[in-house]
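Duplicate of #3305? Posting structure anyway:
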Protein backbone atom coordinates (compact mmCIF):
# COMPACT_ATOMS: atom_id res chain seq x y z
CA UNK A 1 0.00 0.00 0.00
CA UNK A 2 1.21 3.55 -0.67
CA UNK A 3 2.07 5.96 2.13
CA UNK A 4 -0.65 8.34 0.90
CA UNK A 5 -3.23 5.55 1.04
CA UNK A 6 -2.14 4.60 4.55
CA UNK A 7 -2.39 8.19 5.79
CA UNK A 8 -5.88 8.50 4.27
CA UNK A 9 -6.89 5.27 6.02
CA UNK A 10 -5.54 6.60 9.34
CA UNK A 11 -7.61 9.80 8.96
CA UNK A 12 -10.73 7.71 8.23
CA UNK A 13 -10.09 5.58 11.33
CA UNK A 14 -9.69 8.70 13.52
CA UNK A 15 -12.90 10.26 12.14
CA UNK A 16 -14.71 6.97 12.81
CA UNK A 17 -13.50 7.14 16.41
CA UNK A 18 -14.67 10.72 16.93
CA UNK A 19 -18.11 9.98 15.46
CA UNK A 20 -18.51 6.94 17.72
CA UNK A 21 -17.32 8.83 20.82
CA UNK A 22 -20.44 11.01 20.68
CA UNK A 23 -22.70 7.98 21.15
CA UNK A 24 -21.88 7.13 24.79
CA UNK A 25 -22.64 10.47 26.54
CA UNK A 26 -25.68 11.14 24.32
CA UNK A 27 -26.97 7.60 24.90
CA UNK A 28 -26.58 8.17 28.65
CA UNK A 29 -28.90 11.18 28.34
CA UNK A 30 -31.49 9.25 26.33
CA UNK A 31 -31.49 6.11 28.49
CA UNK A 32 -33.64 7.81 31.09
CA UNK A 33 -36.53 7.74 28.58
CA UNK A 34 -35.56 4.85 26.29
CA UNK A 35 -35.04 1.20 27.26
CA UNK A 36 -31.52 -0.21 26.97
CA UNK A 37 -32.30 -2.82 24.29
CA UNK A 38 -34.59 -0.42 22.39
CA UNK A 39 -31.81 2.16 22.40
CA UNK A 40 -29.36 -0.36 20.90
CA UNK A 41 -31.94 -1.28 18.24
CA UNK A 42 -32.64 2.35 17.26
CA UNK A 43 -28.93 3.14 17.00
CA UNK A 44 -28.33 0.35 14.50
CA UNK A 45 -31.57 0.95 12.59
CA UNK A 46 -30.57 4.60 12.22
CA UNK A 47 -27.20 3.47 10.91
CA UNK A 48 -28.75 1.05 8.41
CA UNK A 49 -31.37 3.46 7.08
CA UNK A 50 -28.99 6.42 6.90
CA UNK A 51 -26.23 4.58 5.05
CA UNK A 52 -28.86 2.86 2.86
CA UNK A 53 -30.08 6.28 1.69
CA UNK A 54 -26.46 7.36 1.23
CA UNK A 55 -25.78 4.31 -0.95
CA UNK A 56 -28.71 5.25 -3.24
CA UNK A 57 -27.51 8.84 -3.56
CA UNK A 58 -23.93 7.72 -4.24
CA UNK A 59 -24.76 4.66 -6.34
CA UNK A 60 -21.81 5.41 -8.63
CA UNK A 61 -19.43 4.41 -5.82
CA UNK A 62 -20.56 0.79 -5.87
CA UNK A 63 -19.08 -1.91 -8.06
CA UNK A 64 -20.72 -5.27 -8.74
CA UNK A 65 -17.39 -7.01 -8.13
CA UNK A 66 -17.43 -5.73 -4.54
CA UNK A 67 -20.72 -7.38 -3.61
CA UNK A 68 -20.79 -9.97 -0.86
CA UNK A 69 -20.83 -13.59 -2.02
CA UNK A 70 -22.00 -16.91 -0.59
CA UNK A 71 -18.52 -17.52 0.84
CA UNK A 72 -18.90 -14.38 2.97
CA UNK A 73 -22.11 -15.59 4.67
CA UNK A 74 -20.44 -17.06 7.82
CA UNK A 75 -18.65 -13.76 8.50
CA UNK A 76 -21.80 -11.73 7.77
CA UNK A 77 -23.88 -13.85 10.17
CA UNK A 78 -21.19 -13.63 12.85
CA UNK A 79 -20.97 -9.87 12.36
CA UNK A 80 -24.74 -9.40 12.72
CA UNK A 81 -25.16 -11.65 15.78
CA UNK A 82 -22.24 -9.98 17.56
CA UNK A 83 -23.60 -6.55 16.62
CA UNK A 84 -26.90 -7.45 18.25
CA UNK A 85 -25.22 -8.50 21.51
CA UNK A 86 -22.51 -5.82 21.82
CA UNK A 87 -24.60 -2.60 21.84
CA UNK A 88 -27.19 -4.17 24.18
CA UNK A 89 -24.41 -5.02 26.64
CA UNK A 90 -22.95 -1.51 26.23
CA UNK A 91 -26.32 0.16 26.92
CA UNK A 92 -26.68 -1.85 30.13
CA UNK A 93 -23.11 -0.89 31.04
CA UNK A 94 -23.85 2.80 30.49
CA UNK A 95 -27.11 2.50 32.41
CA UNK A 96 -25.46 0.87 35.47
CA UNK A 97 -22.24 2.92 35.44
CA UNK A 98 -20.91 6.31 34.45
CA UNK A 99 -20.55 7.46 30.86
CA UNK A 100 -16.89 8.45 31.34
CA UNK A 101 -16.00 5.02 32.77
CA UNK A 102 -17.82 3.30 29.92
CA UNK A 103 -15.95 5.46 27.41
CA UNK A 104 -12.53 4.54 28.75
CA UNK A 105 -13.40 0.87 29.31
CA UNK A 106 -14.42 0.60 25.66
CA UNK A 107 -10.69 0.85 24.90
CA UNK A 108 -10.49 -2.80 25.98
CA UNK A 109 -11.85 -3.48 22.49
CA UNK A 110 -8.25 -2.97 21.27
CA UNK A 111 -7.08 -5.81 23.51
CA UNK A 112 -9.92 -8.11 22.47
CA UNK A 113 -9.51 -7.35 18.76
CA UNK A 114 -5.74 -7.84 18.82
CA UNK A 115 -5.77 -11.10 20.80
CA UNK A 116 -8.51 -12.54 18.59
CA UNK A 117 -6.62 -11.35 15.48
CA UNK A 118 -3.53 -13.15 16.82
CA UNK A 119 -4.99 -16.49 17.89
CA UNK A 120 -7.89 -16.88 15.46
CA UNK A 121 -6.78 -14.99 12.34
CA UNK A 122 -2.99 -15.31 12.80
CA UNK A 123 -2.09 -11.61 12.60
CA UNK A 124 1.33 -10.78 14.05
CA UNK A 125 1.59 -8.97 17.41
CA UNK A 126 4.81 -7.17 18.39
CA UNK A 127 6.40 -6.82 21.84
CA UNK A 128 5.43 -3.14 21.90
CA UNK A 129 1.80 -4.05 21.30
CA UNK A 130 1.88 -6.71 24.04
CA UNK A 131 3.12 -4.00 26.44
CA UNK A 132 0.27 -1.74 25.32
CA UNK A 133 -2.23 -4.56 25.85
CA UNK A 134 -0.92 -5.02 29.40
CA UNK A 135 -1.30 -1.31 30.20
CA UNK A 136 -4.81 -1.07 28.74
CA UNK A 137 -5.86 -4.21 30.63
CA UNK A 138 -4.47 -2.79 33.89
CA UNK A 139 -6.34 0.48 33.35
CA UNK A 140 -9.53 -1.43 32.55
CA UNK A 141 -9.22 -3.41 35.80
CA UNK A 142 -8.78 -0.18 37.78
CA UNK A 143 -11.87 1.34 36.16
CA UNK A 144 -13.85 -1.83 36.79
CA UNK A 145 -13.67 -1.73 40.58
CA UNK A 146 -16.46 0.05 42.39
CA UNK A 147 -14.13 1.98 44.68
CA UNK A 148 -10.73 2.08 46.32
CA UNK A 149 -12.00 0.16 49.36
CA UNK A 150 -13.94 -2.40 47.35
CA UNK A 151 -12.81 -5.54 45.58
CA UNK A 152 -16.18 -5.95 43.90
CA UNK A 153 -16.26 -5.55 40.17
CA UNK A 154 -19.09 -3.23 39.13
CA UNK A 155 -21.92 -4.58 36.98
CA UNK A 156 -21.62 -1.62 34.62
CA UNK A 157 -17.95 -2.37 33.96
CA UNK A 158 -18.62 -6.07 33.37
CA UNK A 159 -21.30 -5.25 30.79
CA UNK A 160 -19.00 -2.82 28.97
CA UNK A 161 -16.11 -5.30 28.96
CA UNK A 162 -18.42 -8.03 27.60
CA UNK A 163 -19.48 -5.63 24.85
CA UNK A 164 -15.85 -4.96 23.90
CA UNK A 165 -15.14 -8.69 23.60
CA UNK A 166 -18.15 -9.05 21.28
CA UNK A 167 -16.90 -6.14 19.20
CA UNK A 168 -13.41 -7.68 19.18
CA UNK A 169 -14.81 -10.79 17.48
CA UNK A 170 -17.03 -8.62 15.27
CA UNK A 171 -14.06 -6.50 14.12
CA UNK A 172 -12.26 -9.62 12.96
CA UNK A 173 -15.35 -10.96 11.16
CA UNK A 174 -15.73 -7.60 9.41
CA UNK A 175 -12.01 -7.63 8.52
CA UNK A 176 -12.63 -10.75 6.42
CA UNK A 177 -15.16 -8.92 4.24
CA UNK A 178 -13.81 -5.36 4.49
CA UNK A 179 -12.69 -5.31 0.84
CA UNK A 180 -16.31 -5.79 -0.27
CA UNK A 181 -18.96 -3.08 -0.63
CA UNK A 182 -18.81 -0.85 2.45
CA UNK A 183 -22.39 0.29 1.86
CA UNK A 184 -23.64 -3.28 1.75
CA UNK A 185 -21.78 -4.22 4.94
CA UNK A 186 -23.08 -1.24 6.95
CA UNK A 187 -26.66 -1.59 5.69
CA UNK A 188 -26.69 -5.29 6.59
CA UNK A 189 -25.19 -4.52 10.01
CA UNK A 190 -27.70 -1.76 10.65
CA UNK A 191 -30.92 -3.39 9.50
CA UNK A 192 -30.43 -6.93 10.76
CA UNK A 193 -28.65 -6.05 14.01
CA UNK A 194 -31.25 -3.34 14.68
CA UNK A 195 -34.22 -5.58 13.91
CA UNK A 196 -32.72 -8.40 16.01
CA UNK A 197 -32.29 -6.08 18.97
CA UNK A 198 -35.82 -4.68 18.47
CA UNK A 199 -37.31 -8.19 18.65
CA UNK A 200 -35.42 -8.76 21.91
CA UNK A 201 -36.64 -5.39 23.23
CA UNK A 202 -40.29 -6.26 22.56
CA UNK A 203 -39.83 -9.74 24.06
CA UNK A 204 -38.35 -8.06 27.14
CA UNK A 205 -41.44 -5.86 27.42
CA UNK A 206 -39.86 -2.55 26.40
CA UNK A 207 -42.01 -0.06 24.49
CA UNK A 208 -41.04 2.39 21.77
CA UNK A 209 -40.55 5.91 23.16
CA UNK A 210 -42.22 9.00 21.72
CA UNK A 211 -41.44 9.75 18.07
CA UNK A 212 -39.17 12.68 18.94
CA UNK A 213 -36.85 10.43 20.94
CA UNK A 214 -36.97 7.75 18.24
CA UNK A 215 -35.82 10.33 15.68
CA UNK A 216 -32.99 11.58 17.94
CA UNK A 217 -31.79 8.05 18.68
CA UNK A 218 -31.83 7.07 15.00
CA UNK A 219 -30.02 10.26 13.97
CA UNK A 220 -27.41 9.50 16.63
CA UNK A 221 -27.20 5.97 15.23
CA UNK A 222 -26.61 7.25 11.70
CA UNK A 223 -23.73 9.51 12.78
CA UNK A 224 -22.18 7.56 15.65
CA UNK A 225 -22.71 4.04 14.27
CA UNK A 226 -23.48 4.32 10.55
CA UNK A 227 -20.87 6.84 9.47
CA UNK A 228 -18.43 5.54 12.07
CA UNK A 229 -18.75 1.94 10.82
CA UNK A 230 -18.59 3.11 7.20
CA UNK A 231 -15.31 4.96 7.77
CA UNK A 232 -13.97 2.16 10.00
CA UNK A 233 -14.53 -0.51 7.34
CA UNK A 234 -12.91 1.70 4.67
CA UNK A 235 -9.89 2.17 6.95
CA UNK A 236 -9.81 -1.51 7.90
CA UNK A 237 -9.53 -2.66 4.28
CA UNK A 238 -6.17 -0.84 4.16
CA UNK A 239 -4.84 -1.12 7.72
CA UNK A 240 -6.18 -4.47 8.95
CA UNK A 241 -8.22 -5.26 12.06
CA UNK A 242 -5.57 -4.73 14.74
CA UNK A 243 -4.20 -1.46 13.34
CA UNK A 244 -7.60 0.12 12.71
CA UNK A 245 -8.69 -0.61 16.28
CA UNK A 246 -5.46 1.06 17.43
CA UNK A 247 -6.36 4.39 15.84
CA UNK A 248 -9.90 3.91 17.07
CA UNK A 249 -8.36 4.17 20.55
CA UNK A 250 -8.94 7.94 20.62
CA UNK A 251 -12.71 7.36 20.88
CA UNK A 252 -12.78 6.58 24.64
CA UNK A 253 -10.81 9.72 25.48
CA UNK A 254 -13.10 11.92 23.39
CA UNK A 255 -16.12 10.20 24.99
CA UNK A 256 -14.75 10.71 28.50
CA UNK A 257 -14.09 14.38 27.78
CA UNK A 258 -17.63 14.88 26.45
CA UNK A 259 -19.04 13.12 29.53
CA UNK A 260 -17.08 15.45 31.80
CA UNK A 261 -18.11 18.60 29.88
CA UNK A 262 -21.78 17.87 29.16
CA UNK A 263 -22.81 15.41 31.91
CA UNK A 264 -20.64 17.00 34.63
CA UNK A 265 -19.42 13.60 35.76
CA UNK A 266 -16.75 13.78 38.44
CA UNK A 267 -13.29 12.43 37.68
CA UNK A 268 -11.92 10.70 40.80
CA UNK A 269 -8.33 9.71 41.58
CA UNK A 270 -8.81 6.13 40.31
CA UNK A 271 -10.25 7.44 37.06
CA UNK A 272 -7.34 9.85 36.52
CA UNK A 273 -4.73 7.15 37.27
CA UNK A 274 -6.48 4.78 34.87
CA UNK A 275 -6.64 7.57 32.28
CA UNK A 276 -2.86 8.10 32.42
CA UNK A 277 -2.21 4.36 32.10
CA UNK A 278 -4.70 4.13 29.23
CA UNK A 279 -3.05 7.08 27.44
CA UNK A 280 0.36 5.39 27.76
CA UNK A 281 -1.02 2.11 26.41
CA UNK A 282 -2.83 3.79 23.54
CA UNK A 283 0.29 5.81 22.65
CA UNK A 284 2.27 2.56 22.39
CA UNK A 285 -0.41 1.08 20.16
CA UNK A 286 -0.33 4.07 17.82
CA UNK A 287 3.49 4.06 17.78
CA UNK A 288 3.44 0.38 16.91
CA UNK A 289 1.04 0.86 14.02
CA UNK A 290 3.09 3.72 12.61
CA UNK A 291 6.29 1.67 12.74
CA UNK A 292 7.19 -0.02 9.49
CA UNK A 293 9.62 -2.79 8.68
CA UNK A 294 11.78 -2.35 5.64
CA UNK A 295 13.70 -5.09 3.95
CA UNK A 296 16.85 -3.81 2.27
CA UNK A 297 18.44 -6.39 -0.05
CA UNK A 298 22.22 -6.15 -0.43
CA UNK A 299 24.72 -8.00 -2.57
CA UNK A 300 28.43 -8.20 -1.86
CA UNK A 301 30.90 -9.62 -4.38
CA UNK A 302 34.12 -11.15 -3.07
CA UNK A 303 37.05 -11.81 -5.41
CA UNK A 304 40.04 -13.88 -4.33
CA UNK A 305 42.79 -15.99 -5.89
CA UNK A 306 43.32 -19.60 -4.89
CA UNK A 307 45.90 -21.93 -6.54
CA UNK A 308 46.43 -19.44 -9.33
CA UNK A 309 42.70 -19.29 -10.12
CA UNK A 310 40.56 -16.22 -9.49
CA UNK A 311 37.23 -16.94 -7.76
CA UNK A 312 34.24 -14.61 -7.47
CA UNK A 313 31.51 -15.13 -4.86
CA UNK A 314 28.31 -13.10 -4.61
CA UNK A 315 26.58 -13.07 -1.22
CA UNK A 316 23.04 -11.69 -0.84
CA UNK A 317 21.50 -10.67 2.47
CA UNK A 318 18.88 -8.29 3.86
CA UNK A 319 18.79 -5.75 6.66
CA UNK A 320 15.48 -5.44 8.50
CA UNK A 321 14.82 -2.30 10.52
CA UNK A 322 11.91 -0.08 11.47
CA UNK A 323 11.08 3.59 11.19
CA UNK A 324 8.05 5.81 10.82
CA UNK A 325 5.75 6.85 8.00
CA UNK A 326 7.55 10.12 7.41
CA UNK A 327 10.41 8.21 5.80
CA UNK A 328 9.79 8.36 2.07
CA UNK A 329 12.38 5.85 0.83
CA UNK A 330 11.14 3.59 -1.95
CA UNK A 331 11.39 0.21 -0.23
CA UNK A 332 9.17 -2.83 0.03
CA UNK A 333 7.05 -2.40 3.18
CA UNK A 334 6.46 -5.33 5.52
CA UNK A 335 3.88 -4.43 8.15
CA UNK A 336 4.59 -5.51 11.69
CA UNK A 337 0.91 -6.27 12.12
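Output from current build:
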Amino acid sequence: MTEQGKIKAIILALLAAVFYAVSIPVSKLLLGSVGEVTMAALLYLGAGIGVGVLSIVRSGDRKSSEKLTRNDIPYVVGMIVLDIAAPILLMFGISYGSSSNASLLSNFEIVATTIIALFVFKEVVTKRLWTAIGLITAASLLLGFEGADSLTFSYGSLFVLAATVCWGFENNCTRKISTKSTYQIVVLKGFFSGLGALVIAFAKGENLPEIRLVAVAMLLGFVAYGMSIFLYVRAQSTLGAAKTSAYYAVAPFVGALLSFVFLHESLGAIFLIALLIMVAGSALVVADTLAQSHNHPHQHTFVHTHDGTTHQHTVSHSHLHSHFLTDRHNHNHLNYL
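Confirmed duplicate; merging threads. Residues 110 and 228 are 16 Å apart (CA to CA). Residues 3-290 form one domain.
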